[in-house]
Amino acid sequence: MSDKRKNRLFKINGVESDRYAQLVDKYVREKYSQSAVEAIINNYLSNPNNVQYKSEFTALQAYREQCKSKARTELEMFNL
């Protein structure tokens, strides 16, 4: 297995799955474009004390956690 592919695998209940990563990405993209994610992260990293940047970053991270939970639930439901 190539290093590139290996880095895309995630363990869910002890099983490696790149489907999980695909689902998380799909759900995140429903709300945030790649450029929006990059802007939010870069803004926050450039000035983590900025209230607006911190708020946007915190919202993004919370949404990502929701997407991860949704992906895990979907994979478990369909035994993928």
Short description:
The chain has 80 residues and is mainly α. The chain is built from four helices and two strands.
Structural class estimated from helices and strands: mainly alpha
Order of helices and strands: HEEHHH
Work out the radius of gyration: 15 Å
What is the topology, as strand order, of the major beta sheet? 1-2
Helix content percent band: over 70%
Structure summary, number of beta strands: 2
Mean pLDDT: 85
Give the uncertain stretches in residue-range form.
1-8
- Largest sheet composition: 2 strands, antiparallel
Number of domains: 1
Number of helical segments with 4 or more residues: 4
Outline, from the CA principal axes? elongated
Quote the distance from N terminus to C terminus.
20 Å
Strand content: 5-15%
Topology record:
Blueprint: H1 3-8, E1 10-12, E2 15-17, H2 18-29, H3 34-46, H4 51-77
Antiparallel strand pairs: 1-2
Helix pairs in contact: 2-4, 3-4
What does this structure look like?
With 80 residues, this protein is mainly alpha-helical. It has one domain. It is 72% helix and 8% strand. Strands 1-2 form a two-stranded antiparallel ribbon. The two termini are 20 Å apart.
